[in-house]
Structure formats: structure tokens, C-alpha cells
């Protein structure tokens, strides 16, 4: 993420911050196996007056066992189209930027 993008997001009246695509890898341990999951996401956030108003994960390219892949695609599409976790993401990003970063970095 470029520094200027963060500055613009926090100082301009309205700004869309598009993060670059990055890979996410995790493992789900079960009693008898470990399921590996790889996916890509390129989160996007719409800021208004320095605060996030909307956020999207933009999940793509899921590699996982079939049953898990199907569930992840379903959740990803629900998030993208219905905003399944939208409120939580917006709250968490705003809290991080305006409270946690401010405390740590004196903003």
C-alpha cells in the first residue's frame, strides 16, 4: 500500500483506496487431517471525510478441498453482494485507523 493512498484516504472528502492483490494461506486442522486453503484478495475501501464507509474483500482464486472451496465462494459472494460482514469490517478499520494507530503513532 502506498503512503500517499493512505494520506489521500484520510484527508480528501471522498477517496477509494484499492489495495493490491495479495495471497492468503491458512490451514484448518481437524481430528484426522489438515486442510490447506489458498486464496487471493484485493480489498477496497471507500472513505468519506477520513472514515471508511464501505469495504469489499474482493476474494478471487480460491484453492481448497471442494467442500471448503464451495463454502468459501458462497460466503465471498454473499459478502460482495449483500455485505455479510460489511458493518464489522468498516468498524474494525475505522477503530484501527482512528484509535489504535493514533495511540501508537500519536495521530
Number of domains: 1
Question: How many helix segments?
Answer: 3
Helical content band: 40-55%
Oligomer: single chain
The arrangement of helices and strands along the chain is HEEEEEEHH
Structural class: alpha+beta
- Main β-sheet: number of strands, strand sense, barrel status? 3 strands, antiparallel
Give the radius of gyration. Answer: 16 Å
The averaged pLDDT comes out at 90
Globally, the shape reads elongated
Poorly predicted spans: none
Strand content: 25-35%
Strand elements, count: 6
Distance between the termini: 19 Å
Widest beta sheet: strand line-up: 1-4-5
Could you please describe the fold and organization of this structure?
The chain has 107 residues and is an alpha+beta fold. It has one domain. The protein is 43% helix and 35% strand. The protein is built from three helices and six strands, in the order αββββββαα. It has helices spanning 3-11, 66-82, 86-105; strands at 14-18, 22-29, 34-41, 44-48, 51-56, 59-63. It has a three-stranded antiparallel beta sheet with strand order 1-4-5. A three-stranded antiparallel beta sheet has the order 2-3-6, with helices on one face. β2 and β3 (34-41) form a beta hairpin. The chain is elongated, with a radius of gyration of 16 Å. The mean pLDDT is 90.
Amino acid at each position: 500500500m502506498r503512503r500517499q493512498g493512505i494520506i489521500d484516504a484520510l484527508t480528501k472528502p471522498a477517496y477509494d483506496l484499492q489495495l493490491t492483490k495479495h495471497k492468503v494461506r491458512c490451514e484448518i486442522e481437524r481430528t484426522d487431517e489438515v486442510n490447506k486453503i489458498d486464496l487471493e484478495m484485493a480489498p477496497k475501501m471507500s472513505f468519506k471525510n477520513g472514515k471508511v464507509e464501505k469495504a469489499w474483500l474482493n476474494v478471487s482464486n480460491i484453492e481448497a478441498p471442494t467442500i471448503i472451496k464451495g463454502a468459501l465462494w458462497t460466503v465471498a459472494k454473499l459478502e460482495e453482494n449483500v455485505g455479510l460482514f460489511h458493518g464489522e469490517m468498516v468498524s474494525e478499520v475505522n477503530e484501527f485507523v482512528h484509535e489504535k494507530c493514533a495511540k501508537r503513532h500519536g495521530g
